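User: Okay, second chain of the day. Same drill as before: sequence in, structure tokens out.
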Amino acid sequence: MFIKRFSNGVFLILTLFITTECFGQCSAKIQRIEHLFDNLQEYRAQQNQDAEKQVKVFIEGDTNCSYYLQVLSENNQQLLGQYQHIPYFIGNSNSLLSNTSLNNLAISDNSITLRFVIARGVIARAGQYQDTVKLILKNQFNEALDERDYDFDVTIPTHLALSFLGYNSASTSIDLGELIPQKEYSLLPSLLVVANTDIAMTIWSENKGKLVHEFYQNNYSINYSLALAGDYIELHHAMKKSFLFTKQTDFLIPLKIKLAAFSNQAAGQYQDTIRFQISPQVY
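Assistant: Same drill. Structure tokens below.
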């Protein structure tokens, strides 16, 4: 009876020892994170392909064991900025991208390439954005072996463009035809503004809001007003207009001209030059 109990005791001790040793063999740690590729700073909503950042995570461990990386986003896979959040995806070279807050990605040959992707077509305002992802290394027994925080920082630079679109937009000269007192002329091109931030537009007239006779500049002129998107302004001096970014990267600003009342003007050509300039709004 004594011998039987002793044998069972030895069996239990050996079993516990072997199980613990098996688990202990599958230990590993995150060795380093290496930058591979990043074109996020060139991102524009109008581009035809996704933008992404790639990093490679190397681990040090037993190659006979299976490991995977659990990736958790602090901001639920949203890049947080001052004015907006930008959604992004996490994946690797072998898996479908996911925008869930928890990703389990298999590790092969003690390394894994992580992809952080902003999908094309996402409206992104210029500015600084940040998220922190936690990388948790686990083995096939679902044991957490090591972890590392990775700060995911993105700078979206300011992009601005100004052009004419629509009627007679191929030419920088506009012929109003016959000048009639107090007539509104709407057959003008529209301003096409492409911007990913609030903009300040400066408008100034070479002749300070007057159409001036081509030969008798000092004697004959006609006052006029300029409308931007229906809002008339006088151009006696340079004017500034602000346009706020509203998650729309391009918008049209229709132009109109309305002549003031006039009489006894000399026949001939009258002209003026209007200049438009855009810049980021400074606060």
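The first helix runs from residue 2 to 25.

User: Thanks, on to the next one.
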